[in-house]
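Lab channel / #folding
Pinned by the channel admin:
"Please post every new chain as: sequence first, then the structure tokens as a reply. Keep commentary short and put observations after the output so the thread stays searchable."

First post following the new format, from NK:
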Amino acid sequence: MNPATTQAMVTTSNYQATQAAVQVLKEGGTAVDAAIAAASTLAVVYPQMNTIGGDNFWLIYNAKTGELRALNASGRAGEKATIAFYKNQGFSKIPSRGYLAANTVPGAVSGWDAAYRYSQASMGSKMKWRRLLDSAIGYAENGFVVTPSLEMWGKINVDPKDSEFRNLQRFEGFKKTYLKADGSPYNAGEIMKLPELAASLRLIAKDGAKAFYQGPIADKIVQDLQAHGGVLTKKDFAQHTANWVQPLHVNYRDTVAYNFPPNTQGFASLEILNILNNLDVKAAGEGSADYYHMLIEATKEAFADRDQYLSDPDFVKIPLDYLLSPKHGQEQAARIKMAQAAATVKPLEPKGDTVWFGIVDSQGNAVSLIQSIYHDFGSAIVPAGTGVLLQNRGSFFSLDPQHVNHLEPGKRTFHTLNPAMLMKGGKPYLVYGTMGGEGQPQTQAAIVTRIVDFGMSPQDAINGPRWLHGRTWGVSTNDLKIEGRVPAAVTEELKKRGHPVKVVDNFTDAMGHAGAILIDPVTGVRYGATDPRGDGLAAGF
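Reply from TO:
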């Protein structure tokens, strides 16, 4: 059953973060204030997916002005991060782990800072900055209970047989911070404390974002990176800024779907809906072979455009007006053959994980926010004396100078992160999103079609069987992973149409952790939903 309220609603991928956000809302904070409390808490208790060493992206609806704004708090490549730097060391691709993977400035704290200032200036917030970090500091200093998800990813990442992606205990900072004194990973139910991270958070609470970008935290991070051959400099940190950008949108049935512009794959999520506008999804029937086929084929079309164009728009011209036009959607839909799966041109790259969460306050302000470090545990680098686990987002840059997403100093890389929101009558109707890299646009499409086309509740839409078109680590070809709850007759029909079906566990973590808040446009009731595949909680008051 969906929790419901007439006041404020929060859904996050960890119950402790939800509780932190609810408490801030009860004290009179805005949805933005509560989001900072949740984001900072998640950066402590969910380190396998996000930390203050990562990036975030915000969609913020301001109920006073009726404006929807987007905030890009992703970091740029360092001034010394060049193709020549890596190739001169014999690399054909940027390493996925280690010091050379940490080549972009962490943007998350700058996002908190910019959003907080907006909340103060435009939403009437009276909350003190340091109050919003209380929960995060408390959990880092006093300890928090390890969840099953953290236990699982901790154990996966100390596999000595996988020296490239796992075996993270080879990095001293990771070992000291996230493993027990004997070098073993934590078990669910045990207490993890992060005292060095607590000290860094206290500095940020006292001096604001400048402590991270221009103060002692930046100094320690850069000193450690440079001592181990890394590329980031004090100038890189000092010059970093988050940016307000214009959200993208397409019409979908009687709603308007909003998402994030490049350097994220938000336009691909919107393209899927733009294509489905031209197909009779409702007649296909939710859960039918036709339903899955339509959404999978629309995903292929959208991802082809994404992989051709997506990079930093400050460096690359991306024809967004054309890509999101009704005409292009019609042309893409016309290429879909219901009896036959399209052959994939090239394998989709496996991509990282993240956390999404949503908040709607009693005034009607709404936040859809994603925060990430790319791979689970990011670069695995924790610079000495900081407790800050750095992301490896910049490892996704290409070292091929002809590639649209090739590495350049000051450039933002292709991001899978894309927070979403549906509007009705100019106001938020559905605040939604998910973790899961390649799965984000696909799961977003599942949630939207199930709610808009089939009238399902947010919780039922998230609970429903999911699928993932793409590939996973170490596999050179795409497959279609589909949960075992889908009837055998449906999966067999998909195989007949040419889909390389691989049946996976029910409610598997591989499908990501989604969440949603639906606001009834007539009654104003907020309905929250969280994913049974994760450790999340939806709660309101």
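NK: The radius of gyration is 22 Å.
TO: also worth noting, Residues 264 and 361 are 26 Å apart (CA to CA).
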